[in-house]
């Protein structure tokens, strides 16, 4: 048997692709590519869930209200902590899981298709060290 190139899995690392991570802690990480391209000045977002199509929508809004989530910005990425939302829709993964995102012009929001996993990070036994907390 000849050599086979090993595909790196379960690691952080840099990517230019806009991604979100559903964290096993119940949070959502937004990598630097997605933050810079789609949410550069976002302070608050509304969350949407399409159960039939397994999609999450993240819509930036200008003002805080009873349904907003605060965006926690770092120098290079962002995160939100919608733990109740994640639990209610059974979206908390055993392992932090990444998904590619696209901007939906019709809905004016960032959309992640949860049927199209882009990778995982760590293991179910690890602490929730999300690579989106560091620059992707």
Provide a compact summary of the structure:
Residues 124-136 have a biased composition (Acidic residues). With 136 residues, the protein is mainly beta.
How would you describe what is shown here?
Strand 1 and strand 2 (28-30) form a beta hairpin. The protein has helices spanning 32-38, 83-88, and strands at 19-22, 28-30, 44-50, 55-61, 69-70, 72-73, 78-80, 96-104, 109-121. The relative contact order is 0.29. The longest helix has 7 residues, at 32-38. Strands 5-3-4-9-8-1-2-7-6 form a 9-stranded antiparallel beta sheet. The protein has 136 residues and is mainly β.
Defining key terms:
about 35% strand; nine-stranded antiparallel β-sheet; globular; single chain; about 140 residues; mainly beta
**Assembly state:** single chain
Tell me the number of strands. Answer: 9
Kindly report the average pLDDT value.
88
Distinct helical segment count: 2
- What series of H and E elements makes up the topology? EEHEEEEEHEE
Q: How many domains is the backbone divided into?
A: 1
Termini separation: 35 Å
Secondary-structure-derived class: mainly beta
The amount of helix comes to under 10%
The major pleated sheet works out as: 9 strands, antiparallel
Strand arrangement within the widest β-sheet reads 5-3-4-9-8-1-2-7-6
Radius of gyration: 15 Å
Beta-strand portion reads 35-45%
Shape: globular
Give start-end ranges of low-pLDDT stretches: none
């Amino acid at each position: 048997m000849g050599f086979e190139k090993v595909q790196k899995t379960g690691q952080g690392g840099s990517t230019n692709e806009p991604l979100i991570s559903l964290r096993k802690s119940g949070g959502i990480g937004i990598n630097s590519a997605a933050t810079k391209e789609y949410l550069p000045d976002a302070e608050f977002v509304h969350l949407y869930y399409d159960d039939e199509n397994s999609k999450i929508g993240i819509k930036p809004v200008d003002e805080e209200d009873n349904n907003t989530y605060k965006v926690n910005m770092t120098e290079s990425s962002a995160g939100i902590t919608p733990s109740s939302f994640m639990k209610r829709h059974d979206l908390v993964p055993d392992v932090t899981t990444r998904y590619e995102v696209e901007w939906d012009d019709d809905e004016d929001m960032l959309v992640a298709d949860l049927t199209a996993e882009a990778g995982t990070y760590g293991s179910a036994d690890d602490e929730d060290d999300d690579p989106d907390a560091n620059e992707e």
